[in-house]
Amino acid sequence: MNRIARKLVLSALTVVLTVVALGTTTFAWFTLTNTAVVQPFQANIVADTGIEVSLDEIDWYTSISETLIETYITDTFGAFNFVHLTTVNGYGSFKTLGATGLEDAASGWLQIPLYFRSNSATAIDWSAVTLTSPLSQWQSDVAFTSTTGAISAGEFLDQDASNAMRISIQGTVAAANNVVVFERAATNNFNVVLGGDGTTPIDYSNAGIGNAGSYNYYYIKTNALITGTDAVVAAPTVTVINAGAVQRVTDLVADVQYGTAYAGQIIIRIWLEGWDADAYNSILARQIEAGFTFIGGTA
């Protein structure tokens, strides 16, 4: 490993999120005022030979412990709450559901900056991600169409909270802003990939994407569209990140501030997409685990 000075392994930023419901209503959760509370994180960041990482640009480590990350989150966000969000680009213009439709959100997403410095690596690539949650069962009170097919009233439906989660990594590549947004891929028709193009409103009508999942449930319950939903524009997403399909997330540029040859920054953002087909109330009070691996590269 010492020979591979450019390689960076953040064998963790393995983040465990426990999401706690403040209500038990069975409508699609983004139609309510429910929020979700993040419980203590389990996270580590480990940097390989030749690269150091920091949360504050002051203290630099080859390994950032769970305690340091948890302290950063507590000091930065205090009592952090997830809220129902959507975004056109994965890093700004987060929207939530207001009284008359979409409105700007001031908070509700988790944001963690990571700073890198090195005398060898000149870029950082995102090479792997895991996003999982234990399956939980929810009993529907009406017949509707889920992402897995027709559901009868009283039938139990498996729910995976991570299907409604999004992760974005923001950096700078070739002196330009660069953002990669990840959502889970479709698996055996269990998860619907929402995606988006960042400019066109998603078709949430009962004939469009609203024909399955939480939105169809709401449509069956109310025979109406959710106010403002026809204005939802989602960010483009990728569904595969692995060693064979790495994503360049940031360049490390000539450094004079940190005392090394090269330095750079990424920002990790994590949120729950409130207009995802799997954003049911039942995903609240579930545990979500996200893991990231980054490697050093040559710009």
Record the SSE blueprint.
Elements: E1 15-21, E2 36-38, E3 45-46, E4 51-54, E5 63-64, H1 66-77, E6 81-82, E7 95-97, E8 102-104, E9 110-118, E10 123-132, E11 136-139, E12 144-146, E13 149-151, E14 156-159, E15 165-173, E16 176-182, H2 214-222, E17 247-251, E18 253-254, E19 262-272, E20 287-297
Antiparallel strand pairs: 1-2, 1-20, 2-6, 3-5, 4-9, 7-8, 9-19, 10-17, 10-20, 11-14, 12-13, 15-16, 15-19, 18-19
Q: Can you walk through the features of this model?
A:
- The chain has 299 residues and is mainly β.
- 7% of the residues lie in helices and 35% in strands.
- It has helices at residues 66-77, 214-222; strands at residues 15-21, 36-38, 45-46, 51-54, 63-64, 81-82, 95-97, 102-104, 110-118, 123-132, 136-139, 144-146, 149-151, 156-159, 165-173, 176-182, 247-251, 253-254, 262-272, 287-297.
